[in-house]
Design a protein that fits this description.
By secondary structure, the protein is of the alpha/beta class. Helices cover about 35% and strands about 30% of the residues. It is globular.
């Protein structure tokens, strides 16, 4: 397939590598001449490296959008109007309203729009889904997720929008339930007008999930914990590990006891998440597979982001129905 990669930033570099590995004929578009020159150095034909992405649209089958979030809607709508399938890195757009517009454009054009919620394709996620489906921890009681680390802040959206959103989508996927209500605390310690620390409690039906995201904690943290009636799953996406801790509370002679019954390292195997994600996109474009993360799913995650912002501003729980 001929694929146009729009955006050659740090993550765009990985997209170029994977698309090439998957055998796509890659065009690239970036406003920076230096970044285009870098892509040519990576094997992209100079004639396929352009400043304006629109120039390449007649020559490609699909477009991979890896640009700042505030450009996603305009780029996607132009590509869909030209009849091109689109992969759009998360967040789908800046706002849920813009996301709904992109979803409507995808339906009208009868084209694939896949959102880059990459945690769905991580081998840790496959292991967690298998354990939950197998009833390994009983009924899920609550969960936590942490996406933190000392790093340079993004300039287009806040940390909830760019990092916590990973878990907003992931837990909807793992629990099989859309978010229903949100309570959040957010801070802008750097004074940029964008949140750089957030603590968000998202309720998925009866299951509360607490998600932490910030730019300040030393190290890199990509973990989640899922607590059930008879055990707990502890997952580390960075280390690609999942540990099942078995145990439950039992009442004896009127007193509660915590009974541990062992732990088990669950097998985690799979391809590089980005390779699996983009490979699935290309298969969906060819009509050989269903779109695993349609634009509508990206909108659901954005609704949680917007509910979190409103909750932090108003100091109360916001239902998802209030932001629709």
């Amino acid at each position: 397939m001929n694929v146009l990669l729009v955006g050659l930033g740090r993550w765009g570099e990985n997209h170029l590598r994977v698309l090439t590995q998957l055998g796509a004929t890659v065009w690239v578009a970036d406003v920076s001449a230096a970044r285009r020159e870098w892509a040519v150095g990576q094997g992209v034909a100079s004639a396929r490296a352009v400043e304006d992405f629109r120039i390449a649209l007649p020559h490609v089958d699909a477009v991979d959008v890896v640009t700042p979030a505030d450009s996603h809607r305009a780029v996607a709508e132009a590509c869909l109007a030209a009849g091109r399938h689109c992969f759009i890195e998360k967040p789908l757009t800046v706002s849920a309203a813009d996301g709904r517009a992109v979803a409507a454009a995808a339906r009208a054009a009868a084209r694939v729009v896949q959102v880059g919620h990459i945690f769905r394709f991580h081998p840790v996620t496959s292991t967690l889904r298998a354990a939950l489906a197998g009833g390994r921890i009983g009924a899920v009681r609550y969960a936590t997720g942490r996406f933190s680390g000392f790093k340079r802040p993004r300039t287009d959206v806040g940390v909830t929008h760019t990092d916590a959103i990973h878990y907003f989508d992931l837990f909807a996927y793992l629990l099989g339930h859309e978010a229903t209500a949100v309570t959040a605390l957010q801070r802008d310690y750097l004074g940029r007008g964008l949140d750089d620390m957030s603590m968000t409690t998202v309720t998925y039906g009866e299951v509360p999930v607490v998600v932490e995201a910030n730019y300040f904690v030393p190290g890199t943290h990509r973990e989640c914990v899922i607590v059930g009636a008879t055990g707990t799953l502890v997952a580390d996406f960075g280390a690609s590990t999942v540990t099942l801790h078995c145990g439950e509370h039992r009442q004896r002679s009127g007193a509660w006891e915590a009974i541990e019954t062992g732990k088990e390292a669950l097998p985690v195997r799979g391809e590089e998440p980005l390779r699996l994600e983009l490979g699935t996109f290309l298969e969906a474009c060819r009509g050989r597979a269903a779109n695993p993360v349609p634009a509508e799913d990206g909108v659901l995650a954005l609704e949680v982001v917007e509910a979190a912002a409103r909750s932090a501003r108003l100091g109360r729980t916001i239902t998802i129905a209030e932001v629709r």
